[in-house]
Amino acid sequence: MDVKIKGISLHMPLLFLLFSAIFPLSFSAANKPRNANKPATQSSHNHRLSSAVFKVQGNVYPLGHYTVSLNIGYPPKLYDLDVDSGSDLTWVQCDAPCKGCTKPRDQLYKPNHNLVRCADQLCSEVHLSTDHYCASPDDQCDYEVEYADHGSSLGVLVRDYIPFHFTNGSAVRPRIAFGCGYDQKYSGSTSPPSTAGVLGLGNGKASILSQLHSLGLIRNVVGHCLSSRGGGFLFFGYDLIPSSGIVWTPMLPSSSDKHYSSGPADLYFNGKATTVKGLELIFDSGSSYTYFNSQAYQVVVDLVTNDLKGKQLKRATEDPSLPICWKGAKSFNSLSDAKKYFNPLALHFTKPTNLQMYLPPEAYLIITNHGSVCMGILDGTEVGLENLNIIGDISLQDMLVIYDNEKRQIGWVSSNCGSVNSHLEGDFPHPYATNLGLFGERCPASYEVTDDQ
Prior knowledge:
Helix content is 9%, strand content 30%. The protein has helices at 121-125, 208-214, 294-307, 335-338, 393-396, 430-435; strands spanning 52-59, 65-72, 77-84, 91-93, 142-146, 152-161, 164-165, 171-185, 197-200, 221-226, 232-236, 247-250, 260-269, 272-273, 279-283, 290-292, 314-315, 325-327, 345-349, 355-359, 365-367, 373-375, 377-379, 390-391, 399-404, 409-414, 448-449. The two termini are 42 Å apart.
């Protein structure tokens, strides 16, 4: 099982380090598609503003992550990427050669004379300081990102063609900048993730979302719907936002553009207020579970434990899946068997008031392969998150969650995440509804957009 808190990238001087290492390869000329040097002007596709939709795979348990497959390059090659709203940089494992790579060499990304230069504006966006220094403007742009679980990726920025199909039927193949990671490190006792890299969904200017927005292709909005039965969908743009029913709360003014924060919120248990007040929360699809600071976590543990007194559950200390597990008279086969013993939680947002995120038992419990039921809310302080509070995948399941960077707000609504078609209004071309934005050479792009900044 992959228990991770990859999502939050830590942008602090000691934790987000950027190097000027020499990239250990020289590159051959790129294979460019025909007419690649004839970009469509931004005005020529402003009227095409639409949404790109992607099928999501994965689950909270036992995989511990949700992924999207993205075509990159020309001819396109498919890469499975960890869906991560807690960071902005997208990167793939790089054939450079590569340290800490989990994919066979033929599944690694091969750069082809397409490095982003140090003087490029996007290079400064992946560095913390405003005094980003280039020994030479033509030097490559290096990056290193360290995540909250102390995993990291070191590499270089590149630009390549990434094809997208949109809900209005148009297709485009812009050149997008992303990381080519040639040195990955993983922490903890869990095995390295099986994915080829990370799809950063934050609003930093280096994110794919921001680059597509700057090209005039989409609204600056991203959303995801993760199913408790596995899978779901992800979208860029505005088309899949329901016209009613969404609960909206403002992003915190102090929110980093690398991730999405809201609050303050008070914690309720079984409809009653608790002593946990004023939580600031990070919505992080890159984290398998939900993490509270140690004080809030202990309150939740005590409330749940005391509420189970007199019920037919005992602590399953022999189950190593998560820190706190229980077993019944016989093994649990599904959450429907176990949830009757537990009461719901809720987060009540105080600014604005009367907003609530309801967390039924399914939003904080899992059933393990050992037949136990375990609590998927963990102690964030214990794993180095200090006072950060993270709403992870387990609590985001079966909700359409929307990050609207234009209106600076986060929204959610209960949803059937197994079917994207139920969220589409109006005409939506059937071939694209079937492919959910994932396509290869059988669906060539109708025009190119280049970004040679």
